[in-house]
Amino acid sequence: MTNQGVGGDKGKGRLPDIDFKRIASAALACADSLVREWLPDGHKVGHEWKARNPIRDDRREGSFSINLATGAWGDFATDDAKGKDLVSLRAYLFHDDDQVESAKYLAAKLGIPDAAPSAQPGERAKPPAIPREKADKPPKETEAKPPEAPKWVPVFPLPENAPPPPRAHEFRGIPERTWCYRDIQGRVLGYICRFVKSTGGKEITPLTYCRHEKTGAEKWCWVAFPEPRPLYGLDRLSAKPDATVLVVEGEKCADAGQAELPDLVVMTWPGGANAVDKADWSPLAGRKVMTWADADSQRKKLSKAEKEAGVDPLDAPYLAAADQPGAKAMAKVRLQLAARGCRLWNVDIPGPGEKPDGWDIADMIDDGWHGEDLAMHLRQHAKPWEPPSEESDSAPSDAGEAKRRPAGDPDRWRDNLLWKKGELSDCLANVYDILANRREWSGVLGFNEFSLRAVKLKPPPFANGDVGDWEGVDDSRTAIWLTRQEEITPTSARVMEAVETLARAHSFHPVRDWLSSLPKHDGTARIDTWLSDYLGVATSEYVRLVSRWYLIGMVARVMEPGVKFDTCLVLEGTQGKGKSTALSILAGDWFDDTDLDLNNKDAMASLQGVWLHEFAELGSLAKAEASKQKSFLTRRVDKYRPVYGRRDIKAPRQTVFAGSVNDWEWQKDPTGGRRFWPVMCTDALNLDGLRDNRDQLFAEALAAYLAKERFWPTAEQQKDIFDPEQLQREQPDSFIDALHDWVYGQTADFSVAMAVLEGLKLDASKLTRDTQTRVGIALRKLGCTRVEKRNGMVRYWYRPPTRKAASSEATQPAQQYGEGRRAPF
Question: Which pTM was predicted?
Answer without folding.
Answer: 0.48
